[in-house]
Amino acid sequence: MSAKFETQDEIIGLVRAFEECTIRRDDWRHAEHLVVALYYCSTCELEAAIDKMRSGLFHLLESFGVDLTREMPYHETLTIFWMRTVNGFEKEKNGESLLEKANAVVELFDKDYPLRFYSRERLFSDEARAGFIEADLVDKPKDRSS
Fold first, then answer.
1. Residue of 52, 15, 25, 39 whose CA lies nearest to 105
2. pLDDT of residue 25
3. Domain spans of the chain, in order of start
């Protein structure tokens, strides 16, 4: 797979489009989630990065016209899982440019990665959607957030 991002300005533009809710719904995919998460993890402590991502996701869903009183596509466990995973990746790649890290993170982590640590039933439960729950499979991810 070739590099998805060619310049750091593209990454900054993506983050701006996320924060300003100007990104099109069709353009908001897994890779874009990861790169915004990476940007936040590279500029904030983990808890602040999680808060920014969570808040941004809620604003974005509202801008997409999602009625959050009727449906809730937001998933707390997946948000925390991905933020911790990306934060660990970002710390391990210290010294690399944001551009290098962004292209590597989208190459390394496909959307099914959490299923290495969570059973499908647990991960997609109402409990996991509403609040963070720990992984239930033997091969739990190490917490690289510290």
1. 39
2. 92
3. 8-130
Q: How many helices (H) and strands (E) does the chain have?
A: 7, 0
Q: Please tell me what DSSP assigns to residue 125.
A: S
CA pair distance 123, 62, nearest whole angstrom:
24
d(CA 42, CA 24): 24
- Helix 30-43, helix 98-108: angle, nearest 10: 140
Burial state string for 77-102 with b = 16 or more CB within 10 A and e = fewer than 16: bbbbbbbbbbbbbbeebeeeebbebb
pLDDT, mean over the chain? 90
Q: Alpha-carbon dihedral of residues 74, 55, 114, 123, nearest 10 degrees?
A: -40
- Sort 39 into a burial class: Cβ within 10 Å, 0-12 / 13-18 / 19+: buried
pLDDT of 66 strictly over 90: no
Confidence (pLDDT) at 75: 85
